Inverse folding.
C-alpha cells in the first residue's frame, strides 16, 4: 500500500499561525515527501535507533471481535478484530484508567485515511503490540469525524509540541485526560532515524512507572500553557479591525505565495482550499477597477482551470481527489471527500457567474453528478468519503489509486477504432492518450512511486486544449470533443468492473449542510430545478434523520443501514458548532434557491439553538463544542483557521449577517460584531489564515443588499427576475420573495415588505441598502444594470 518508507507528518497544522491555509491533512498520501515520524513529549524520551531495533512480527487477524464491534463508525469497525482491548471514547474507559492508574492511549483517525490503514495493519494487528496496549494502557479509538472536539483538543497539543500534525494521531493521556506524549504515524519497528511503536510503548510504560509525578506535573504545565495560548476573546477591544486593511493584507499574502504557472498557493502538496478562491472572487468584486482586483480574478480562475485539467480531477468519473502531491496538480492523493465536492461545486459555479465560461459550469455539474451517483443515500443524505486504496483485482492487496489509473494497453484495447479524416493513421486510443498525457512507461515519476507499485500506470491529465489536439491531427474541434467524450464513457464502463474503493457511509450533519449549499447554489445559478430538488431532498433528510424535534437539536451523525435504512448510535451523537453553522448556511442558500420560507424558518430556529449551546457570552464568538459534551476535556476551543473546510466561526459570521438581513433582528448583528472583534487579533496577525472571516468582515462593513422580488412565485416574470439575480455574482446579499401576504413569515419579520408594491401588476424588484430601497424595477435587464453598479 505504501509508496514511501514514511508518511508526511503535517498539513493539518502546518500553517496554523503562519503562512497560507492549506487543507486540513486528513491522512497522508503515500506519495508525499518523506518526513520522519514525530514523537512529541512533555518529558525527555530516548529515541530508538540502530542498536535498539525490536522485532514485532505481525499476526493474522483475531477471530473474536473486541468491543468496537458494537460501534457504528466505519473507522472503529475497521479495528473491531484487532488483538487490542479497544474502548470507544467514554466514561467506561476513563473510569478504568483511574481505577487501575494506567495511562490512556488515544488513537484518532478516520476510515478513508491511508496511513491509518497502514498503522492498523502493521501495529494494531500485531499480537505483541496488542498485548502491551491491553495490559499496560487503556486503549481508546476515536473517529475524528464523529468527535471533532476530541480531535481538535489533542491535535492542538501535538501541533504545539512539534512541527505539525496529521492522522493517525496517537496521544498518551493521564487518567484525567491531560496529554503528555503525542505523535502521528509510527512504524512498528525502530529504524535508523525513527523510533518504532513497540519501543515507544515500552518506554512510556517505563516512564509512567518511574517518573509519573514528573509526567503529571509537566502535563499540567503544558495544558495550562495551551489554555492561555488558545484563548480567543474580545478583551478590551470594542470594534473589529478595518476591513480594507485586512482585505489588502490577505490579498498581498496570497499574491506572494501564488504559483503563476500552475495556479494554487504552494509548491507541493497542493490543496484546493475553496476558502481562498472565495476570498479572491470577493476581493475582485470590491476592487474591479484596480489592477489588484483583476489580478485576484485571474489567480482564482487560473487555479480552478488548472485543477480541472489536472489529475486531481477524476476525468472518467468526475469529482475531485483530496489534494495533489505535486505542483502541477497531476498526481493526486486519490481519496475523495464530500466537503471538497460541496465547496468546489460552489467555487466553479461562481467562476461561471463571473466569467460566463461554460467550462466552469460543466465542471460544477460533473461534481454534482459524481456526488449523486457515488455519495448519495436514497433517502437524500450524503456519505462522507471514498477511500484512496482499493485492490487492483479481486483478492489482491489494496493499493492507493488502483481504481483510477490506466495502462496504455488498457486504453488501446478499449479504444481501437480508427479516426477518419486525420492527417496520419490514428486510433481513438492514440488520440485519447495524446490529449490526456498517457505514455507506455506511465506518467507517474519514480520519485512519486519509489516502490514501483504504479509502474507503467497513468493518471489522466489534460495536456492540450481541444483546439491544439484537433490541430495536431487535422481534425475538427467538435469531432475531437465527441471522440474524447466517447473514450471517457468507455473507460467509465470498464472501470465499473474493478474493485471499488471503500465507501465511508457515515453521514455528518455539517458536510450534508455544505452539500445542500452546493446543490442549491449551483441549481439556482444554472437554472436547473433537478439540482435544487437534490438540495431540498438533502435538507429533508437532515430534518427527518438528523434533527431531534423535541429538543430542537441537530445530531452529528447517522449511518447507512441495511436495505437503504438509516441507523443512529445509541445514545445519539449530538451536533457540534460546525454542524449548526454549515446546516444554517445550507438552509439559507436553499431558501434563496427555492423561495420556500420553511427552510428559512428552520434556519432561524437552529441559529437560536447554536447561540444557546455554543456562544461565549464573556469573550465573544462560538466554542466548537458545548460545555456539557466536552466535560473532562482539558480545553474548550474556538476554531481559528479556514482550511479544507471553513472555520465554523467564519461561516457563523456570514450566517448572522444574512439572518439580520432576512429578519432585522439586531441581536444577530450584535453577535456578528462581537465575533469579528473576538477574532481581531488573529485576523490582524495572519489574515490569510482566516480568508472566509475576512470576507465576513468586509460584508459587515460594506452592508448587505436586500434584493426583494414582489410577485407570484410561479409566474414567469417573477422567475425571470429571480434568475437575473441568481446569474450575477453578488456574495453580500439576501434575496427575498415577497408574495404580498402580510401574514407570511418574512412579512412578519420585515414589516417594510408590506409597503413594497408590484408595478402595474407585474413582478417587481427592489434593491434595498441601509433602510432605503431603489425605485421599482420590472425588467431583468434594468435590474442587471443596477446590480452591476
Amino acid at each position: 500500500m505504501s509508496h514511501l518508507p514514511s508518511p508526511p507528518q503535517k498539513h493539518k497544522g502546518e500553517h496554523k499561525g503562519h503562512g497560507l491555509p492549506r487543507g486540513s491533512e486528513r491522512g497522508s498520501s503515500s506519495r508525499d515527501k518523506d518526513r520522519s515520524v514525530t514523537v512529541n513529549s512533555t518529558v525527555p524520551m530516548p529515541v530508538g535507533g540502530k542498536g535498539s531495533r525490536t522485532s514485532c512480527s505481525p499476526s493474522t487477524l483475531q477471530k473474536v471481535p473486541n468491543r468496537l464491534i458494537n460501534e457504528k463508525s466505519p473507522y472503529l469497525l475497521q479495528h473491531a478484530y484487532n488483538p487490542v482491548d479497544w474502548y470507544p471514547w467514554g466514561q467506561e474507559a476513563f473510569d478504568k484508567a483511574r481505577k487501575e492508574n494506567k495511562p490512556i492511549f488515544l488513537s484518532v483517525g478516520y476510515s478513508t485515511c491511508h496511513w491509518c490503514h497502514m498503522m492498523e495493519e502493521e501495529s494494531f494487528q500485531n499480537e505483541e503490540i496488542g498485548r502491551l496496549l491491553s495490559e499496560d494502557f487503556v486503549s481508546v479509538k476515536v473517529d475524528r469525524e464523529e468527535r471533532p472536539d476530541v480531535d481538535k483538543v489533542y491535535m492542538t497539543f501535538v501541533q504545539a509540541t512539534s512541527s505539525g500534525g496529521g492522522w493517525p494521531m496517537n496521544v498518551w493521556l493521564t487518567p484525567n485526560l491531560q496529554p503528555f506524549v503525542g505523535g502521528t504515524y509510527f512504524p512498528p519497528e525502530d529504524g535508523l532515524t525513527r523510533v518504532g511503536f513497540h519501543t515507544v510503548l515500552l518506554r512510556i510504560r517505563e516512564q509512567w512507572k518511574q517518573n509519573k509525578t514528573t509526567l503529571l506535573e509537566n502535563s499540567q504545565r503544558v495544558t495550562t500553557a495551551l489554555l492561555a495560548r488558545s484563548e480567543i476573546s474580545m478583551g478590551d477591544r470594542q470594534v473589529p479591525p478595518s476591513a480594507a486593511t485586512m482585505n489588502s493584507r490577505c490579498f498581498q499574502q496570497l499574491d506572494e505565495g501564488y504559483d503563476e504557472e500552475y495556479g494554487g498557493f504552494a509548491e507541493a502538496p497542493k490543496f484546493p482550499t475553496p476558502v481562498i478562491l472565495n476570498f479572491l472572487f470577493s476581493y475582485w468584486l470590491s476592487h474591479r477597477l484596480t489592477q489588484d482586483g483583476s489580478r485576484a480574478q485571474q489567480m482564482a480562475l487560473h487555479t480552478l482551470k488548472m485543477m480541472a485539467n489536472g489529475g486531481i480531477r477524476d476525468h472518467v468519473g468526475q469529482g475531485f481527489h483530496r489534494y495533489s502531491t505535486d505542483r502541477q496538480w497531476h498526481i493526486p492523493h486519490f481519496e475523495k471527500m464530500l466537503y471538497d465536492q460541496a465547496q468546489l461545486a460552489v467555487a466553479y459555479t461562481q467562476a461561471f457567474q463571473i466569467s460566463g465560461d461554460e467550462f466552469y459550469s460543466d465542471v460544477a455539474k460533473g461534481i454534482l453528478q459524481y456526488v449523486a451517483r457515488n455519495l448519495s443515500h436514497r433517502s437524500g443524505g450524503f456519505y462522507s468519503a471514498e477511500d484512496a486504496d482499493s485492490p487492483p483485482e479481486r483478492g489482491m492487496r489494496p493499493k492507493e489509486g488502483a481504481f483510477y489509473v490506466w495502462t496504455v494497453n488498457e486504453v488501446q484495447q478499449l479504444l481501437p477504432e480508427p479516426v477518419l479524416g486525420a492527417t496520419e493513421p490514428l486510433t481513438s486510443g492514440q488520440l485519447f492518450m495524446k490529449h490526456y498525457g498517457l505514455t507506455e512507461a506511465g506518467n507517474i515519476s519514480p520519485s512519486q512511486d519509489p516502490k514501483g507499485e504504479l509502474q507503467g500506470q497513468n493518471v489522466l491529465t489534460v495536456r492540450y486544449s481541444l483546439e491544439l489536439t484537433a490541430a495536431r491531427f487535422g481534425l475538427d474541434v467538435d469531432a475531437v470533443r465527441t471522440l474524447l467524450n466517447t473514450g471517457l464513457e468507455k473507460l467509465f464502463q470498464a472501470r465499473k468492473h474493478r474493485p471499488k474503493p471503500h465507501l465511508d457511509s457515515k453521514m455528518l450533519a455539517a458536510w450534508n449542510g455544505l452539500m445542500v449549499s452546493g446543490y442549491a447554489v449551483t441549481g439556482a445559478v444554472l437554472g436547473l430545478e433537478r439540482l435544487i430538488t437534490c438540495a431540498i431532498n438533502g435538507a429533508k433528510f437532515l430534518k427527518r434523520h438528523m434533527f431531534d424535534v423535541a429538543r430542537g437539536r441537530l445530531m452529528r451523525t447517522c449511518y447507512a443501514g441495511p436495505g437503504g435504512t438509516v441507523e443512529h448510535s445509541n445514545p445519539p451523537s449530538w451536533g457540534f458548532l460546525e454542524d449548526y453553522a454549515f446546516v444554517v448556511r445550507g438552509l439559507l442558500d436553499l431558501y434563496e434557491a427555492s423561495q420556500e420560507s420553511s427552510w428559512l424558518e428552520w434556519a432561524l430556529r437552529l441559529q437560536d439553538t447554536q447561540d444557546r449551546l455554543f456562544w461565549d457570552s464573556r469573550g465573544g464568538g462560538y466554542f466548537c463544542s458545548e460545555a456539557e459534551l466536552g466535560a473532562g476535556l482539558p480545553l474548550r476551543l474556538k476554531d481559528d483557521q479556514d482550511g479544507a473546510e471553513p472555520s465554523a466561526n467564519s461561516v457563523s459570521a456570514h450566517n448572522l449577517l444574512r439572518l439580520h438581513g432576512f429578519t432585522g433582528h439586531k441581536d444577530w448583528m450584535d453577535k456578528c460584531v462581537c465575533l469579528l472583534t473576538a477574532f481581531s487579533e488573529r485576523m490582524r496577525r495572519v489574515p490569510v489564515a482566516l480568508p472566509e472571516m475576512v470576507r465576513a468582515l468586509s460584508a459587515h462593513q460594506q452592508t448587505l443588499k436586500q434584493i426583494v422580488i414582489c410577485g407570484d412565485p410561479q409566474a414567469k416574470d417573477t422567475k425571470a427576475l429571480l434568475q437575473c439575480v441568481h446569474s450575477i455574482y453578488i456574495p453580500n446579499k439576501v434575496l427575498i420573495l415577497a408574495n404580498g401576504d402580510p401574514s407570511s413569515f418574512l412579512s412578519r419579520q420585515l414589516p417594510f415588505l408590506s409597503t413594497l408594491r408590484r408595478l402595474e401588476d407585474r413582478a417587481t424588484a427592489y434593491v434595498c441598502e441601509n433602510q432605503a430601497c431603489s425605485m421599482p424595477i420590472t425588467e431583468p435587464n434594468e435590474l442587471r444594470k443596477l446590480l452591476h453598479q
Remarks:
- Confidence is low (pLDDT under 50) at residues 1-19, 23-38, 43-61.
- Residues 654 and 696 are 5 Å apart (CA to CA).
